[in-house]
Amino acid sequence: MPEERFTVENRSAESRYVLLDSEAEHGSAEIGEESYLDYSADGVDQRIMYHTGVSEHYGGLGLASVLVRAAVEDTIAAGRKIVPVCPYVAAWLPKHPEYAEHVVAKAAEHLEALRANQG
After folding, report:
1. Which of 21, 27, 28, 90 is deepest in the core (most CB within 10 A)?
2. Residue 7: CATH number of its domain
3. If we measure between CA atoms, which residue out of 77, 79, 72 comes closest to residue 36?
4. In what order do the strands lie in the sheet with 44-54?
5. E strand or H helix at 17
6. How many domains are there within the chain?
7. pLDDT tens digits, 67-119
8. Overall pTM > 0.70
């Protein structure tokens, strides 16, 4: 599977990262997403990652990991901490201890911010 076939793009206006397949039948197609909410508390900029999804057609290829790694690295590069609310992200991060110093534990205030944003 060529790396350049799959790319991740931050669509900040939509608060999500999208995973694209450049070899899709009808041109570059969205095949996955990582939804997030930017949040600040006590002077710490954070990105609450709350939903990861990849099309079932692409299941078993490790693409959710590709998507999350790109989102995590972009978040860190932007100077934000990661708040893993999504179960996939919460399970992925402990397997990648190199990112541990950039993680903020999920708290009630994060869930309240998500509810307020989606309400």
Report:
1. 21
2. 3.40.630.30
3. 72
4. 6-11, 16-21, 29-41, 44-54, 81-84
5. strand 16-21
6. 1
7. 999 999 999 999 999 999 999 999 999 999 999 999 999 999 999 999 999 86
8. yes
